[in-house]
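#struct-queue
[09:14] JT: dropping the first one here, sequence first, then the structure tokens:
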Amino acid sequence: MNPTTRRVGGINILMYHQVGDFAPMREHRSTYCHYRRFAAQMAWLRRFRYHVLGMDEVLDCLAGRRPVPARAVALTFDDGYENFHEYAWPELHRHGFKAMVYLIADLIGQPSSWFAADGRATPRLMDAGRIRELRRAGVDFGSHGASHVKLAEQDDARVRDEVTRSKRVLEDLLGEPVEHFCYPYGSYDLRARDAVAEAGYRSATTCVRATSLPGDDPLALPRKAISFGDTLPGVLWKLHMKHAPKGEWPRRNPENNAPMA
């Protein structure tokens, strides 16, 4: 399919991880966004009237139940870091933007321990009280698995457990259905996709870099990563110029071993 065709009627689902005050870095930049750049990005979306959709609205658009608005984006945040509350939420609240935060069910309120393997600091994830506070304020939450493992590398029983148990734990925490999933590290296969479907999730996001289009599989939605090195022009290039070709299902993360989360 022609890349220009893919741009018509699409939704850019943006993928963030941490937002905060970070020193310059050359490695692992995909999991960081400096708060000043984040503020500039949100101000741009507001000034030029981008339509920031929640994931339920994204699904309605992709299924044809409502038209895809011009300049449609969705904002997703993987892992559920405490710095989301300190740095990202004030900007989102200021502009009235919706956001989806994907939580790791077994690590609520704990350090992001997987960073230690790279010698990085292990920032704390939001605890239950913070999550409930933000939910009352309007933040949406989904599952990022139970223990943050690459699902495509697990046996069938572990895949099912990661998908179903995380849903149960988070629903108990929030007191409401959890219907959206994010594959940790973007790692998934047909088994993981089927487990997500059987668990009752309505959407699942990947780390494949592309625009979501009507007709896309709602359990394998692509996203565009925003990282530490992205200036505002770089983000606009990702929004409006950079597109991966649409291949046959399953869309796989071409950087499956990259330090994504």
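[09:21] JT: and here's the second one, same format:
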Amino acid sequence: MAELIDVKDLSDDLARHILRTATGKARELDTRMNVAVVGADGHLKAFFRMAGAWTGSIDIAIRKAKTARYFNMPTGEIGKLSQPGGPLYQIEHSNDGLITFPGGLPLTTAGGDIVGAIGVSGDLVENDHEVALAGAQYLLKALAGE
């Protein structure tokens, strides 16, 4: 018997709040970022380019978000697996190009449902990751009613 899958996704409001939280963290770090949020389907849901953020990082932020959603893992982890000799070697050449360095994270519920992903670009990858993490943590707190 065929069944439909019930897909959980981010609301527009949650996507905007994730962006605001992430850009707030970028301001704390005194950096300018591009922040992208994709929905459960991997397509762009919300995007914000902070004043002065590199235009070359726009596509990187979007691709980080898509990469994290396509493979349901942080982009930095995909990067580790895609090194020469690794099980995902050269995966960055698939799907019209992926980004395999830190700054992209799946967005999950406390129950583990993946509802989208966030991608951040514009500074050192450590800062990109920290800003993405702030957005991901906002989602968990919001869903918990905090």
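[09:30] RK: nice, looked through the second one.
[09:31] RK: The chain is about 40% helix and 15% strand.
[09:31] JT: good to know. The first helix runs from residue 12 to 28.
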